[in-house]
Design goal:
Strand order of the largest sheet: 2-3-1-4
Helix content: 25-40%
Number of strands: 4
Strand content: 15-25%
Shape: globular
Structural class: alpha+beta
Largest sheet: 4 strands, antiparallel
Distance between the termini: 25 Å
Length: about 170
């Protein structure tokens, strides 16, 4: 894991294609876990922000990546904080059950990227980062837990890549 300069925070987008509509009985166990898992995220050390829909407590009503695709997007103080929540909390049990509710991923479904502290990423920004990861592989601009880059590397990458060479910059 890499150290995070205080001026940067880690954004993440995760997309998942539902096997059935959210109101289907086979998806009910996932829906029942949404509120406690989101509350756990918000109570986790290093949590900064998460995407929610208008008047909702989660983002499942938003469908910017397709009708059957739900999104989860959040910002964390560090990569370590996000890792700890994802893999060292009750969230891990949800990850283990994902095949019960979601199609198997054939392309990248999670993207991480560094943002200036206080920046709230947009869905458009997040989907552009995911597309970049899918098209170009991991880079300081769009990466995964398995192919991580530091905030310093991302800042350096942004300085040396001409603006016309960056999508969504």
């Amino acid at each position: 894991m890499t150290a995070t300069p205080p001026a940067c925070q880690l954004a993440q987008l995760n997309v998942a294609t539902l096997l059935h509509p959210l109101d289907h009985p086979l998806i009910a166990p996932f829906v029942e876990l949404l509120e406690p898992v989101n509350a756990s995220a918000e109570a986790s050390p290093g949590f900064v922000w998460r995407l929610v829909g208008d008047g909702d407590t989660d983002a499942t009503g938003l469908r910017p990546a397709g009708e059957n695709v739900i999104v989860n997007m959040s910002v964390w103080e560090s990569q370590e904080a996000l890792w700890d929540f994802t893999y060292r909390s009750g969230h891990l049990e949800v990850v283990r059950q994902r095949r019960d509710w979601f199609e198997r991923h054939v392309s990248a479904h999670l993207v991480l990227w560094w943002v200036p502290a206080g920046h709230v990423p947009t869905i458009t920004e997040a989907l552009e980062r995911l597309a970049d990861l899918r098209e170009n592989g991991p880079s300081p601009r769009a990466f995964t837990f398995a192919s991580t880059y530091s905030a310093d590397e991302a800042a350096e990458h942004a300085r040396v890549v001409p603006a016309e060479g960056r999508s969504g910059a």
